[in-house]
Specification:
The protein is of the alpha/beta class. 39% of the residues lie in helices and 24% in strands. The protein has a single domain, classed as P-loop containing nucleotide triphosphate hydrolases (Rossmann fold), CATH 3.40.50.300. Helix 3 packs parallel to helix 5.
């Protein structure tokens, strides 16, 4: 009886892991893109994925989202195979190149995206969250085609945050944001984590990752060369900053 209870606790714990990647590999023809990549993202943490252009970050994210299939290994979201549609009901995703319909108004886009999560659009809440991202709430009544790049990025971030999804996956979320908006976004992500939810994001801005991430992963030459805290990484590679340690790490790899 005790063994059964312990097994049930273990199974429930495994099923509560928002993201689990195990020995995942992917090739495109003769080109190896990912090789034996493994990582676990725990509930209630902000996890940062770092790598040079072409390191395989976007490919990994596409596999997690079911846009691509891996050749080997597994990707699981809250204990379910990432290929299963039901697994993706628990996450909200913002791509690096975010291009919502130019003909929708900002509020209409938010209403549409929230409907996919079975949620109704709350105009007052949307305005409040827009201000928190330094987005003028008045533009929610304007067509997206009139938005600047930064405004469009803020709309995408606003959409992701309003879903209140247990897992956020953000590909280069700082893209197009000015310094003030970046600071406010980091505040919003930290507040999101405080509710017990999980954030997995990639970024080239290592200072931002160092500031808010509980743990990081370094993807280089298609392999995962480090998973742990930023402090552990800096200690291992003897750098005063994450940026300097990163340079040391990729030279040593």
């Amino acid at each position: 009886m005790r063994l059964t209870v312990e097994l049930n606790i273990l199974v429930n714990k495994m099923n509560n892991i928002p993201l689990k990647i195990h020995n995942l590999s992917k090739d495109f023809g003769n080109q190896k893109v990912l090789e034996d990549v493994s990582l676990n993202v725990s509930a209630g943490e902000i996890f940062g994925l770092i790598g040079l252009n072409g390191a395989g970050k976007t490919t990994l994210i596409k596999i997690i989202l079911g846009f691509l299939s891996q050749d080997k290994g597994s990707a699981n979201i809250f204990g379910m195979d990432a290929k299963e549609t039901k697994a993706r009901e628990n996450l909200s995703y913002l791509p690096e190149k975010f291009n919502p319909s130019q003909f929708l108004k900002g509020g209409e886009f938010l209403s549409l995206s929230l409907s996919y999560f079975g949620k109704k659009y709350d105009a007052d809440l949307a305005r409040e969250k827009a201000i928190a991202l330094d987005l003028d709430p008045a533009v929610l009544d304007h067509r997206v085609g009139k938005y600047s790049k930064g405004m469009g990025q803020k709309l995408g971030l606003l959409s992701a945050l309003l879903t209140d999804a247990p897992l956020l996956i953000l590909d280069e979320p700082m893209s197009g944001l000015d310094p003030k908006a970046r600071i406010l976004l980091k505040d919003n992500l930290l507040a999101y984590r405080k509710t017990g939810k999980t954030i997995f994001f990639s970024s080239h801005i290592l200072a931002d990752i160092e500031e808010i991430c509980d743990r990081i992963a370094i993807l280089h030459d298609n392999k995962m060369v480090f998973v742990g805290t930023a402090d552990e990484f800096k200690k291992n590679y003897e750098g005063k900053t994450l940026e300097r340690s990163f340079l040391t790490a990729i030279k040593a790899a």
